[in-house]
Design goal:
The protein has about 525 residues and is mainly β. The chain is built from eight helices and 38 strands. Strand 6 and strand 7 form a beta hairpin. The longest helix has 9 residues. The chain is globular and about 65 Å long. The chain starts with 10 loop residues before the first strand and ends with a strand.
């Protein structure tokens, strides 16, 4: 599996793919992906980054037009990347790799950097569109605009300047009105979480949209110097959901990392003695629903699948793990030694939160009685003391992550989501999965032990007849084959049964990425 985590090379000039099968005539656009792409530094590559998340960001895309496909890839020209290549060492702190002094800076600049540390702009995790622009993000306040036409890097946007965020989720969600929302935190003047609203701009320009961004909700941290780690959040038509999981980040340690020569991972602590808490915020008013929801057992998560409302309940579906063990298994030395073994498999879990009726307080809720009245679910909610304790329903057998779904059903009652086993060690390793949330049935696609599928993208069918079923569409995924003599490729599957429709093979490496978008 070591070939899966080797450094990549740029391919700025598009290469023609060999198409096998018939691409749908209505499928026209670019499938853009983002992930770690460069792990070695120095002229001889003698310095290696420690963690998979530390790799310098590379973007790649498959352009699809009239049944023909081309492939290209470029490194994100972040300051972190350019200075690391120049110096031969990282000069910004990354998740698992410490920063080193930048010899290009004078003594005064170095001193100021130790007092007010620079934040890495190695935006390796998420990408999304905002009006006329595409942005790449990590879990800082810095966004970088990238042109999807040629993958060239453009200007930065600092959410700290617009709405005072020091940290921001890699995921942005959009409602049916076209309004976007992000979750972020401020840590310099008391730790608070914020829901930020970015309305559509009449001009259609992203810069104008950011200028109208405003904080909709403020959620104070329950800790003085810590904040709960998050990667995504949930949104239904009327509510947001922030899960405060017991993975805590020490803000004071975070600020002092460069000075002490430590990596980001060293200021994160797992506290399994604490439960995971669900903070529910009214979308219209930004007010926090005055009910304490907590889980009966702690869990760790990256991704929300979907959140929707039904008969006075809020259904929150997530991919959850019992612990953050996965983070410690993604160090490159282990991965390249084929030592990726762990027991804590991530999978779909459903929590159901009974919403207070008009004017109802938690004191008026029945104690020690299951407050979930929906039929056909094993999820429970019991009022115990001053809180409602939630026990989840396991949606299916675990072993997958990076969920996606038909976006037309986002925030609504739905039936299916899709995910990948990736290099997971469970029964879904190397697989793409389709999960039926009503029955727990899992359908899989798998070619063999040497091929690894990246996050899938659901594209609804737009030709021939009106879409009438939730899974009426196709799936796109990028497949990396660790056998050097075999091509990597773009895969198209029928979203109904995961049968192959077509593929587009290329003679250059398609790196394992994290997230993607179809434009």
């Amino acid at each position: 599996m070591d070939q899966l985590f080797r450094s990549s090379e740029e391919q700025a000039e598009p290469v023609q793919a060999v198409v096998k099968g018939d691409f749908p005539s209505w499928l026209q656009g670019s499938f853009v992906r983002l992930g770690p792409g460069k792990f070695e530094l120095g002229k001889t590559g003698d310095f290696m980054m420690n963690h998979w998340f530390d790799g310098y960001a590379i973007l790649y895309k498959f352009d699809i037009k009239n049944g023909k496909v081309t492939f290209s890839k470029r490194f994100l020209q972040s300051d972190a990347y350019k200075r690391a290549v120049c110096v031969g060492r990282p000069v910004f702190t990354e998740y698992g790799t410490r920063s080193y002094p930048d010899p290009c800076k004078n003594i005064f600049s170095r001193m100021m950097s130790s007092l007010i540390p620079d934040v890495t702009d190695n935006n390796v995790i998420g990408l999304y569109t905002m009006e006329d622009s595409m942005y790449v993000a990590s879990e800082t306040s810095i966004l970088i605009r990238v042109d999807p036409k040629d993958l060239k890097t453009h200007e930065k946007t600092d959410l700290g300047k617009f709405v005072g965020l020091n940290i921001a989720s890699s995921h942005v969600v959009k409602d049916e009105k076209g309004t976007s929302y992000c979750l972020g935190s401020s840590i310099l003047s008391g730790i608070k979480h914020h829901i930020v609203k970015i309305p559509q701009s009449p001009s259609g320009k992203a810069n104008d949209a950011w200028k109208k961004a405003k904080v909709l909700a403020n959620i104070p941290s329950p800790y003085k110097v810590n904040y709960n780690y998050y990667h995504s959040f949930g949104m239904s038509p009327n509510y947001f959901v922030l899960i405060e999981q017991p993975m805590l980040v020490n803000a004071m340690k975070l600020i002092s990392l460069p000075l002490k020569g430590k990596a980001l991972k060293e200021c994160m602590e797992w506290h399994p003695e604490e439960e995971s808490r669900f903070v529910v915020i009214e979308k219209g008013s930004g007010k926090i629903v005055p009910v304490k929801y907590k889980s009966s057992a702690p869990f760790f998560l990256f991704h929300h699948i979907n959140t929707y409302e039904e008969d006075g309940h809020l259904i929150v579906d997530i991919i959850a793990y019992d612990s953050p063990e996965l983070l410690d298994k993604l160090y490159l030395e282990q991965l390249r030694s084929n030592e990726f073994h762990y027991s804590d498999l991530g999978g779909g879990r459903r929590f159901i939160l009974p919403l207070p009726k008009d004017g109802e307080t938690i004191n008026e809720m029945k104690a020690n009685t299951n407050l979930v009245t929906l039929k056909g679910t094993k999820a429970t909610a019991l009022k115990v003391g001053d809180a409602v304790t939630l026990t989840c329903e396991i949606i299916s057998e675990p072993g997958y992550d990076l969920p996606t779904m038909n976006n037309s059903y986002y925030g609504k009652k739905y039936k299916y989501f899709y995910a990948v086993g990736l290099f997971n060690v469970g029964g879904y390793q190397n697989s793409i999965v389709k999960v039926n949330t009503l029955t727990g049935e899992v359908t899989t696609w798998k070619e063999g032990p040497y091929t690894f599928a990246g996050e899938v993208q659901f594209i609804p069918r737009t030709s021939g007849s009106t879409q009438v079923e939730e899974d009426d569409g196709i799936l796109l995924s990028c497949i990396t084959d660790i056998r050097r003599e075999e091509p990597d490729y773009l895969l198209i599957l029928n979203a109904k049964d995961l049968t192959e429709i077509a593929r587009a093979e290329v003679s250059v490496q398609v790196p394992i990425a994290i997230h993607g978008i179809f434009i």
